[in-house]
Design goal:
Blueprint: H1 2-23, H2 26-43, E1 50-56, E2 60-67, E3 71-80, E4 85-94, H3 101-104, E5 112-121, E6 125-131, E7 137-145, E8 148-160, H4 161-167, E9 174-186, E10 193-205, H5 207-214, E11 223-233, E12 236-245, E13 249-258, E14 263-272, H6 279-282, E15 290-299, E16 302-309, E17 315-323, E18 326-338, H7 339-345, E19 352-364, E20 370-383, H8 385-392, E21 401-412, E22 414-423, E23 427-436, E24 441-450, H9 457-460, E25 468-477, E26 480-489, E27 492-499, E28 502-511, H10 512-518, E29 525-536, E30 541-553, H11 557-566, E31 575-585, E32 588-596, E33 600-610, E34 615-624, E35 627-636, E36 641-644, H12 646-657, H13 661-684
Antiparallel strand pairs: 1-2, 2-3, 3-4, 4-5, 5-6, 6-7, 7-8, 8-9, 9-10, 10-11, 11-12, 12-13, 13-14, 14-15, 15-16, 16-17, 17-18, 18-19, 19-20, 20-21, 21-22, 22-23, 23-24, 24-25, 25-26, 26-27, 27-28, 28-29, 29-30, 30-31, 31-32, 32-33, 33-34, 34-35, 35-36
Helix pairs in contact: 1-2, 12-13
């Protein structure tokens, strides 16, 4: 046993001697220096670390390291290992932090200079130093009690933000100066005590870098400044912060961070005095101002936002939840918003005034799995005629009042709407409008009811009477639009289709007499119609073709003239088919009409109908039995003038006289040839 203790003692002495030989002798120091060099350089060849001096003894240390031939780390001073006391100076100058990436597992850039002193023992020590990090004038003091941080004082003056961003390997989104003053008496969370004040001044956004990084088109200079004051108490940070930029002012009068519960609760205010300045960021032009206040609660990875605003002169409240970086639900309630204020904010003309109320309860805001209900109500609304007339080349005079009620259900990727819009002009009823958000497509039914066509005079500039009901469907996807519709109209059927710019309509069995009555036009002809219209809305050109079936003339100026000169009642003639062919150019119709009955043939060889000016100019050739007549109808469509070509009429009369009693007497006196020459010469006078 005695030999065992002697052997054990010898082993311990050898071990202590070996440690002493390695740690505290010159050869040992050289071994450690070589080990440090080999380890670092094997992990990071770019570091090119060189230990120029490493001297460690029981009462001192000297360490001189160079990195990449231009950077260095120097530590020297007194060291009492057994007494656990230090009195050291350190001087660190790294020209390029990127050379240390493999060592620290973090990409950093730029230079770092730190120097100072480290004095004290286990019970109390003081770390004091200065730095020029980010071209700043930085100083710091750190008190350690039992090797744990106690008082911490940091003063950062005029650190360049663009250099700080570069240091942490971020693009230089902005420049400016950062100042920080931190006085922390106790850094332990459970007994935290102190305050931190920070500010940003003279900052400007770097447009070119921000545009490239976020796909924006910033042009104007965006300046900003901020100030934050944080008070540290046990497990709690209470802060006030303000960020002022040329775009907006964002402030928090109270932000509470509970360290033990890992929650953040902030009362915020956003004030944008000129929304127009956001155009380069959001891509659309807005007008006016916007402000909102509320609270944000951050708990783990969940965020809840509860706020209110007076946007559009309304009382608006909203509540939103974000979980795992995705919107969970949104509730919004807009009360008594002014439509004209909404239009102004959206950079639209003041088309209308009125009150808008909207309530949205979106239980699931996942774009692929939507669930919710949006209810919209418009009341006390009317069009602003002056603006409508200017923007759409209209001539509104009468007040147009309207109101609307809609409900939109959100289901999966679809918004399904039903609603009713009523106005003094017309009513629009939609039962099932489906908008697929993912495909950006719309499919909707509609019923358009015009109870009194006379109310449309200001819009159409055409006097009408009666009522019209249209129903159909609308389909829109990407750049394609398809609208179809049908109507029971004037005793017949109307169906139409709008395919992008091409409009096609078919009219069957509509009574012409009722149509002219509806339009307050003279009732000239009565028949059933079969017409087809093809019109291009873009080129404003098209064709109208068709037939008027089993028609007859009604008593009018034209039939009276026929009766007067031809001694023939035109109204008794039945026209089995009247063929119509029209070329349309910007609401001007050039038409040819051919109609034939048992005793007559009437051709409109040349006609012009200007629907914009309500003007007609038509040449008519009529053959009544053996009598040929030429007419011209010209003037306002509601009361055109009918003019008969009397020269042709007299020629026809003279032609008839050649074979009557007068002709026979002339033949007796002048002979056949002489009488014929005399009558022909007389005809030439006309």
């Amino acid at each position: 046993m005695k030999k065992f203790f002697i052997a054990l003692t010898l082993i311990l002495l050898v071990m202590i001697g070996s440690v002493y030989g390695i740690l505290f002798t010159k050869p040992g120091n050289s071994i450690i220096a070589s080990y440090i060099e080999d380890t670092v350089n094997s992990q990071n060849k770019e570091a090119k670390l060189k230990v120029r001096d490493f001297t460690l003894s029981f009462n001192s240390i000297d360490l001189d390291i160079t990195i990449a031939d231009s950077s260095y780390i120097n530590i020297n001073g007194d060291l009492d290992i057994f007494g656990k006391k230090v009195d050291l100076k350190y001087d660190i100058d790294i020209k390029d932090l990127s050379t240390l990436q493999a060592l620290i597992n973090q990409k950093l850039n730029g230079p770092l200079q730190i120097k100072g002193t480290f004095k004290g023992d286990q019970k109390f020590a003081l770390v004091d130093g200065v730095s020029t990090i980010a071209s700043s004038n930085t100083s710091y003091k750190l008190e350690l009690k039992d090797f744990e941080p106690s008082n911490i004082n940091v003063l950062v003056k005029d650190a360049k933000i663009e250099e700080l961003l570069y240091l942490v390997n971020q693009p230089k989104y902005t420049n400016g100066l950062l100042n920080i003053t931190a006085n922390i008496k106790n850094a332990k969370p459970e007994s935290l005590d102190g305050n931190i004040v920070s500010s940003i001044t003279n900052a400007k956004i770097n447009n070119s870098i921000v545009n490239k990084s976020f796909g924006l088109k910033l042009k104007d200079t965006i300046s900003l400044k901020s100030r934050t004051n944080a008070i540290l108490t046990p497990n709690k940070v209470t802060a006030k912060a303000t960020l002022i930029s040329s775009l907006a002012t964002i402030s928090s009068k109270e932000t509470i961070i509970l360290l033990d519960k890992q929650t953040v609760n902030s009362k915020y205010k956003v004030d944008i005095t000129n929304l127009n300045k956001l155009e380069d960021i959001i891509g659309i032009k807005l007008n006016g101002k916007f402000n909102t206040t509320g609270t944000v609660l951050v708990e783990n990875e969940n965020i809840k936002i509860d706020g209110q605003s007076d946007v559009f002169d309304s009382f608006t409240t909203y509540l939103a939840s974000i979980k795992n970086s995705k919107v969970d639900f949104i509730n919004a309630d807009i009360k008594d918003a002014k439509i004209d204020k909404l239009l102004y904010l959206l950079n639209q003309p003041k088309y209308a005034t009125g009150i808008l109320n909207l309530n949205a309860e979106i239980k699931n805001a996942d774009i692929n799995n939507l669930d919710g209900l949006v209810t919209t109500k418009i009341t006390k609304a009317k069009l602003v005629n002056k603006v409508i007339n200017k923007q759409f080349n209209q001539k509104l005079k009468q007040t147009v009042n309207f109101k609307a009620d809609t409900k939109t259900n959100l289901e999966k990727t679809k918004a399904i709407t039903n609603g009713l819009v009523t106005s003094s002009l017309a009513n629009l009823d939609i039962k099932n409008a489906i908008f697929d958000i993912k495909e950006a497509s719309l499919n909707s039914d509609y019923v358009l009811n015009i109870p009194n066509l006379s109310n449309l005079y200001d819009v159409t500039q055409t006097k009408m009477r009666g009522k019209v009901d249209l129903s159909g469907k609308l389909e829109s996807k990407k750049e394609n639009l398809l609208v179809t519709g049908t109507s029971k109209l004037l005793g017949g059927d109307l169906d139409f289709k709008l395919d992008n710019n091409v409009f096609n309509a078919n009219v069957k069995s509509i009574e012409i007499k009722e149509l002219t009555h509806l339009l307050y036009y003279p009732e000239v002809f009565d028949s059933s119609s079969d017409l087809a219209l093809n019109y291009n809305l873009l080129s404003k050109k098209g064709k109208l073709k068709g037939n008027l079936i089993k028609g007859h003339f009604l008593p009018n100026d034209f039939s009276s003239l026929i009766n007067q000169f031809a001694k023939f009642d035109l109204t008794r003639e039945i026209y089995e088919s009247v063929v119509i062919n029209s070329d349309i150019n910007d609401m001007v119709l050039k038409t040819v009409i051919n109609m034939k009955s048992k005793n007559t043939q009437i051709d409109v060889t040349k006609s012009l109908l200007d629907l914009n000016k309500s003007y007609v100019n038509a040449d008519i050739n009529a053959k009544i039995r053996k009598l040929d007549l030429d007419f011209n109808v010209k003037g306002n469509m509601k009361s055109p003038k009918v003019r008969l070509n009397t020269k042709d009429l007299l020629k026809n009369k003279i032609e008839e006289k050649i074979n009557d009693k007068v002709g026979n007497k002339l033949k007796e006196k002048l002979g056949d040839e002489g009488a014929k020459d005399l009558l022909n010469n007389f005809k030439k006078l006309f």
